[in-house]
Amino acid sequence: MSNRLLEAGRASLMLGLAAFVSAGCGGLTLRGFFVDNAYPKTAESIPPRDLLLSVDASVAPALIVAYQKPHEAATCLDQLASDDAAIDALTSYGACLAKGGAEADCSQGLPWIPETSAASKQPSIPQGNSCPGQLPSALDQMRMYLSLGDAARALYDYHLDTRGQAALGKPLKPELSQAFRQSLRHASQILALDPKNDGDPRLPTFAQSGGAANGAFMAGYTYGLFWLREKARLYATPEQKSAIDSYRFGGAATSSVGTLVALALDLYFSDQAPTPPQERALDACIEKAGKPVSGDPGRKLQDCALAQLKTNFRQNEWDLLCAQEGDVLTLLGDEFHGLLRFDPMADRILWPFFRDFKDILLGNNFIRTPLAVDMNQAVLVGLDERACRMRDMDSQKCLMTGTLSSIIEPIFAAPLDKVYSGLEGPGGESGTWIDGSIRSLNPAARGATFGAGKLLVLNPSRSEGIPSKRITQFVEQFLQTTDALGASQRSWEIAYAAGYQKQRHERACVLAKLTSNFSLCPEVAPSAPESVPAADPGGDSIRVWVPEDIEPKTLFASGYTFDPLVMSALFAWGQQQALLDRKRIFGWLGWCAMLAMEDGAVKCDVKGVSTLYRQRVDAHKVEVRTEVDGYRKYSDKVLWQRHLDERRRLLKKNFKDCD
Length: 659
Prior knowledge:
This protein is α/β, with parallel strands linked by helices. It has helices at residues 3-22, 30-38, 51-63, 70-81, 84-98, 103-107, 138-163, 174-192, 215-235, 238-245, 257-268, 276-289, 300-312, 317-320, 343-361, 395-405, 444-450, 474-515, 564-589, 592-596, 611-630, 637-654, and strands at residues 115-116, 123-124, 205-208, 251-254, 322-323, 340-341, 367-374, 379-382, 416-419, 429-435, 455-462, 541-546. It has 22 helices and 12 strands.
C-alpha cells in the first residue's frame, strides 16, 4: 500500500471534517452517521432484474470461445437457438448433472452425441439439431460439445440458484428459456463477426490483472518476452523465422490496467499492411519510444506495439486524470459520480490510438475481451472486441467504452453509462459500468474458457501482498480491506481456472470415447501408444507475480498514483523477470526455436545456435540489470522523501479540474 495514497486519503478525510464544521455539520457524530445511513429517509423500490443481461453474463463466457471456423460455429448456434428439442436436451443435460449423473450418461441425451442402448449396443441419435457434430473440423466439433455443456451447466445452475433447490427437475421458466435462446444468438453474432474465420483454438491466451500503475510490471514483462521474439526473429535463419512467426497468442481476457497492456498486444499480433496514414501514425508512435526493436522496416506494427508499452507506462497523473467538480461534501451527497475522470487519457492516448489503428485491431486474429461490471444489475460482462464490427455500430465509441469501462475503479473515477457487448445490438447496454476487476481482478476463468490452449496469467503485484504496519486510520482500513478482498478473489479465480482446465480435459476424454473424436484427448484413441509423452512442464497454466525480493519495496504504487519513476522501475523489473523466466516460459509454450538459438542442447525440430542473438541477449540482460540497480538508491529514506515532496509539488501544480 503506497504511503502517498494513504496520506492523500487522510488529507481528504481531514478536509471533509473541516467542511462539515464550516457547513454547520460539526455536530454529526459517528452514532448519528450510522443511524442516518442504516435506514433511508425515503423508501425506494428495487429496480427489476434485467433477465437477459443477467443470463447472458452467466452463459456467454461458455459460448463465445475460440474456433478454427467461427462463422460455421455461429451458424450452428443460431440454428440451436430456434430448436426446441435442442434447448430441451440441454436443459435435461443440466438437470442430469445436478442430480449427480455422470458425464457419459448425461451427454447421451444430447442430439449431437450418439446414444448407445444397453440392450442392443447400437448407437441412436436423439431428436434435435445435430449441427455441432457437423462442423468442418473434429476440433471445432469437440470445442462446441464442451462449450454447450458448460453453457447448459451454467443455465441450470441459474435456474436452481434463483428458484431454490426445490426446482430440481422442474421445467425452466419460459422467460429464462427465452433469455438463453437470445444468449445463443448473441454468441452467434459475435462469432459471425470474426474478421478472419481462420483461427487456432490451441493458441495460448493471456489473462491480465488489474493493478493501476503497478501494471507497469506486466507491461515490462510483456515487453521483455516480445523483445526476445523480435531479436530472435532478426537473427534467425529462414526456417527459424518461419517457426518464430508461428509462435503467437490467440487472445487476452483483461481487467483494469491489463486492458491497456492488451491493446499493445492486439496491435503486435496484427499482420495487415498499413495504409499511408497508418504508416505515418506508426512512425510517430515508434519515435516516442526511441529506436525500433525489430530492426525490420516491415514490422512497424510490432515496433509501435512495443513502443506503446513503454510510453503508456511513463505517464503522470495529470496526463491521465482530471478532478471532478465539487468539494469534499460531494462524497456524501446523492450526486457523487467519482473523484476523478480519465478525460486526458481518453482524449490524448486512447482516442488517437483507436482513430489510427481501429481497422487493424478489429481485422486481426487476436481477440481481446475486457471485463466490466454493471453495478445496477451486479453482473460481470465480457466485451469481446468483435462486437465493435457490428453493422451500424460506432466502432470508435465501442472500443473506447470497452477500454474505459474496464479500468474505472469505483469512488476514484466516474462510471460509464453504456457499453457495447453486442447483446442489445449497436444501441448498447445501459447501466453503471465500472472496472471488471471488482468482480474479476484477474479474469483467468474467462481466459481459460476462451481458448483450448495454455493460459499465461500475469499479475502486477506480489503473490502475498506487501506487509504493512498496524492499521488505525479509517482510510487505511478501507483501502486495505478492498485490497484484501481483491487479493482473495484473484487467488480463488486463478486456482479455479487451473481446476477448470483439468476438468474440461477429463470431460473431453469422456466425450472422445462416446464420439470417437480424439482431437482434445488423443491419449484415449485406440491407436494411441500405451504411454503418451507428458506435455511441457507447468500444466495448462502458469502464473507470473512480482518477485518478493525486488528492492526497494517503496517503489510500488497504489490507487491512482501514477509516478513515472515508480512505473519505470516496475517496467524494468518486469523486463528483468521476463529475461530470467524466458527458458521456463518459452519451453512451456513450446517456442523451442528461440531457445535453440541460445543453446544447441535444446530439443527442437528447428535447430541452429545464433552467436549474434546470444550476444545481444546477454548485452540486454546487462542493460536491464544496470537500470534496475540504479533504482536501489531509493532505499535511502531521505532521497525517497525528497522525491515524494517533489511529486507532491508537481501534482499540486499540474493536476487540473475536468473541463
